[in-house]
Amino acid sequence: MTSINWNRPDTVILYRSPGTYPYSAEEFTAASRTILDLLQPEIDKPKVTLKPNVVHGVSPDSGITVHPGFLRGVAEYVIDRGFAPGAISVAEGGGGEESRDMREHYANVGFDKLAEELGFNLVDLNADDYVRVDIPAGRVFKQMPIGRTVWDPDAYFINIPKMRTHNLGITTISLKNLQGIVVPIEERHMCTLFPRYEGDRGGDGLDGDVLDSHERWAHKICDISLARTPDLNIVDGLVPRDGTGFRNGNDRPMGLALASTNQTAIDTIGTALMGIDPAKVTYLRVAGERGMGPNRVSDIRVLEIVDGRLQERSGIDDLIADPPFRVTLSATLSYTTYEPIEYNRAEVEAVHAGS
Prior knowledge:
This protein is α/β, with parallel strands linked by helices and 355 residues long. The protein contains nine helices and 15 strands. The chain has one domain. A hairpin with a 3-residue loop joins strand 8 and strand 9 (170-172). Helix 1 (25-39) runs parallel beside helix 2 and helix 7 packs across helix 9 (282-289).
């Protein structure tokens, strides 16, 4: 175990794959496993819930979903720590109202075969029971329905996002990944205009001039994090994707993986690595203002894994994508405000089942 105190809210751990693109499944596994083997996070609960990013059932090499090899590294680490496979649940709520069966999405990505091999539970959060969790510090929501598998107080919660751009959020990493834990699915899509249904609580606590804007959306995803904060975040950034975040876009191989206990810090570093200024991203500003973690690169300590040890980096400028990732609007969006960045031309998605 490393002697450096990595378990701080101002710290992000970075791993660079020694392989070259296209990365093999084994290289994805090595990325997540190397981080966990070095950090050895204290798992102080009898069960473990893993929440990967499976926005749609697409090829595992698409750059859109967490690669099954990356998930394997996390699951095998937990099993090797002595957890029975039956005490481990992989849970996600992807797709959308018209494509909500996660069995199909899991199969397309290859998670079903991995579950069969390793023996962990593969949970469809779209069909999960839920608990309405009170959020005393919530800004838009004072209560959030969270899938029972994720909410389980006896489970250590590991958030496993994919690093990508997004047509509304600009970037989607650990904070945005938690949208998939909101159940039922009809209450999940935070990009939807409000009110969405009779009795909708949207709007509480916010001024009218930020309703249905990026700022209000940012408060929504921050509220989700307060309802169920991950114990650890470990990001698949080997092959991120630019574009809309769904179908349209290009894979941008970077060979990176990140880890942190703090979502704001890891999302700030991930955003900067994609060549996007975190200061221009509303959800990061809002998270910082709400005291959820540091949102300036200069305030974040980055520790890189080098020769099996952690070393502090003097900045990340040498790792920033060049050219920067581009964000493409989905042509179906009708929001009146957009972030202050340069967008690609709006395109119609082949499949776009919500945000």
